[in-house]
Amino acid sequence: MARIPKETVDQIIHHADIVEVVGDFVSLKRKGQNMWACCPFHHEKSPSFSVAPAKGLYKCFGCGKAGGVVQFIMDIEGTSYVEALKYLAKKYGIDVEEEEKTPEQQLAQNEKDSQYIVSNWAKDHYHRLLLGTDEGQGIGLSYLRQRGLNQTTIKTFELGYSLDQWDDLLKSATAAGFEQKYLEKTGLIIRREDDQGQDTGRRYDRFRGRVMFPIHNVSGRVIGFGARTLKPNDKTAKYLNSPESEIYHKSDVLYGLYQGRQAIRTEELCYLVEGYLDVLSLHQGDIKNVVASSGTSLTDGQIRLLKRYTDNVTVLYDGDAAGIRASLRGIDMLLEGGLNVRVVLFPDGDDPDSYIRKVGDQRFRDHLENASQDFIQFKTDLVSREAAHDPVKKAEAIREVLQSISKVPDPIKRQVFLQQTSQAFGIDEQVLITEYNKLVRNATQKAPGGQSSSGGSGAGPGSGNNYGGSQQVPSGGASQRPAPRPMSPEEEAEALMYGASPEDLMGGGGDLQTLTREELEPVPDVLEQCEREVVRLLLLYSPQPLAPEVSVAQYLLEQLEDTAFKTGLYADLLHLCREELEQGRWPEVRTLIQHGRSDIRSLVAELATEKYELSPNWTTHQIYVPRELDLLQTACDNAILRLNKVNVERALAEHMEALRRPMDEAALDEHLTTIRLLKQMDNQLANMLGTVIPRASL
């Protein structure tokens, strides 16, 4: 991957004003020290999106999005870190010279850049032909006008026309100085071969006599084309797409996403259609949160792309029953990807493009709202109608619905869908749960390595999603209990005294194997919270003086000299703060919020933002409210004392646990001596913190 020199990165970050950059996308209003707006990443009525100019960061207290100016561009544009830096560099007129690459890397980059350049030139060429030639206007433009598209839509999507000639593009590109190999690599021209498959040396245009639909990536660069023939009785395909290339992978592209990405974020919803004209007509009708799969089956890459912008997808179908049946598998993939899926059907013979032209924008919107239904309910209705009164078909229909439910990662949603399916088919819910679990077990056994074939959409260990075998629904009811903990020998003995059988001890006793409070309700890690507080003070108040020539940073780092952090992320941030100080700089939010690691950026944003500010009315009424800045010595002392106390308590617990194991007398004496010292230290720290309650007060 291309790398930008650190000096250039620093220059970009220094010049990029976060208020100015964010203000390009939302309307900010000052309230106190910060700027506020409705969040551009989710729909809300009251502003919860805050920008802190002094710290150079943003945070939404509604959806949790947070970061610095580079992260904002990554989030809003869906781009990589390097692409976000280039975006800002272009905005502020900063030249980006990437670090020197190996000859192989440079060649690969030049190859891709050349393909982007020639694709963009071809887009402009086709657009000029559409608007500036007799053939383009008479055939291409008249067709687009016939389909109801206006000039604004044509220019927004940069539509074009290819002349009905064998080599128009080839000649024009050659005259413009482009090498044929790049025209061939992007699929704009085709080499002619003889009957034996040998290259004849001749080349001709791929697209001839067609309306051209440029395909953009999320950054707006042209990567390929879709083309519709306008010739009557044409024996070639009605639609023709660019072939796969180094810059165009159709499985990772959605038509219209570049033009509609901001509307998708704002509306928190994406309409999924099939064709280019569906996107164009809806966009022209001010329904801009729409994309198309361009007539291809949905892929995992396209679903991941959608997931970056919204969790909610509504699929717009025409009334063709065969087409609906064929696309059900694609919707199962949407469910598997963790998306909330709804469906809207149109009357027979209509698709989204024809229907909006027939009824108008407002009635089309009304139909989207009134005809929308959850996909599981839609599929249940569809297959139950097909099954009619045939018991065998009805059983198969139920299994089809259960297959779709098994794709849903969220266990609560799965349970709700099972209840709805039970009511729709008039089948006892317990029977459905049993059949559902059987389907999941079979899928788990068939999948390689014992992994369920359902749930392959990016869920890994620790992801929090339940897939495969872990998706089974307990047959006793809706709620799921954690697996019971194993019994201790003492508990086993006591259970046997009261008549429990060996089978009960293996898991059949249920009530005997009670859950601990920690298993029912996770307890926050106290050590992690203490380390977090120390890092927060260091990050926010490093240069503040505690005493003459003693800053917060110096004091905290001196106190932590012999203390190793156990939480990896906090240890990394502490190390970064030390590095900044060693290089003669104070650790600053504005600097660390631009770090290359996303987890560091997220942590800095969390530590540096506060949802509420002290009202100036207190000062107006001459009421003094102390701020943390006024009590820094106390805050630092308490943070260090609490961290030390937790570490002492943990060490004490380890030695107490060691006493349970067999040991010789010398080792026992050593443990007991250490325990006494640790208890003394624990009492001293408690006294210093004021957490010891005198016996007389009890």
UniProtKB/TrEMBL annotation:
Zinc finger (CHC2-type): 39-63
Cofactor note: Binds 1 zinc ion per monomer.
EC number per UniProt: 2.7.7.101
PANTHER family with a match to the protein in the record: DNA PRIMASE (PTHR30313)
Pfam families recorded: DnaB_bind (PF10410), DNAG_N (PF08275), Toprim_2 (PF13155), Zn_ribbon_DnaG (PF01807)
Organism expressing this protein natively: Hymenobacter endophyticus
Claim: Nucleotidyltransferase is one of the keywords in the record: yes
Function noted in UniProt: RNA polymerase that catalyzes the synthesis of short RNA molecules used as primers for DNA polymerase during DNA replication.
Listed Gly residues bias regions: 452-467
Official protein name in the record: DNA primase
